[in-house]
Amino acid sequence: MSAAPTILLRDDAALRVFDTGQGRLPVVFQHGLGGDANQVAQNFPDQPSYRRLTVECRAQGASSAGSRRPFSITMFADDVLAAADAAGLDRFVAGGISMGAAIALRLAARHPDRVLGLVLVRPAWAFDAAPCNMRPYVEVAELIRRLPLAEAHDAFASSATSARFRAEAPDNLASLLGFFARENATTFAEVMQEIANDGPGVTQAAAARLAIPSLVIGSGIDLVHPLATARELGETIPDAAFVQVTPKAADKDRHFAEIRAAIGGFLDRHFNNQDQS
């Protein structure tokens, strides 16, 4: 299902928003750090019964950075909530991938009157800010901000971090190396450093008080999105369903197909026959 983008102005940032505009069940679903609406489309089972809204966060996708600082998960969550307000979505399921999962968790914890359900795909954060699994993003960002791009790329490619990822999580390494080739690499490095050092701002106790249907999806062969993080969230959020899917590094097509099937099954089980008004 395609969605024609519109522009939401926030401060002096122009954010691209995708809204399928149809469907009885509203789902706000966000991309990961450095991702965009295309990443969401790979993971989300768009179908006529779901109205899916996605905001390309500041300096990601085709959205501009704006001048407001610092970048944070709180800022991005506030932008997403503003887009939901503009679209007239009073209550919705919140979900996302990696950074998008952190945004969704914050929305669920801070706005329980708005969030009907929660979908966390390959979460990179549980409850602490600046988890060690996000340190490679800081390393990449610092190199980009300090060196010419070609030198920064070569320095990271020959680093101990790169060697570890090449051996243990090649899909993660491909993503990290891709940041050096971004058109807005210097601006995005600022986003990357600040977000990697941030967190969802949700305590374990707050997550344990969530009283909504929840789904957590994790996978292996992934140093950025540890399976242990997904399990911790799944064990903390009351009655959350936990699904482990084929690692992206092992079989991308199967990985995405299993995620879409898990999300679709979860949404249909919990919301297909319910009135969302």
UniProtKB/TrEMBL annotation:
- List the SUPFAM superfamilies hit by this protein, alphabetically: alpha/beta-Hydrolases
- Keywords, sorted A to Z: Hydrolase
Pfam families assigned to the protein according to its UniProt record, in alphabetical order:
Abhydrolase_1
GO MF annotations, alphabetized: hydrolase activity
Domain of life where this protein originates: Bacteria
Name under which the protein is recorded: Alpha/beta hydrolase
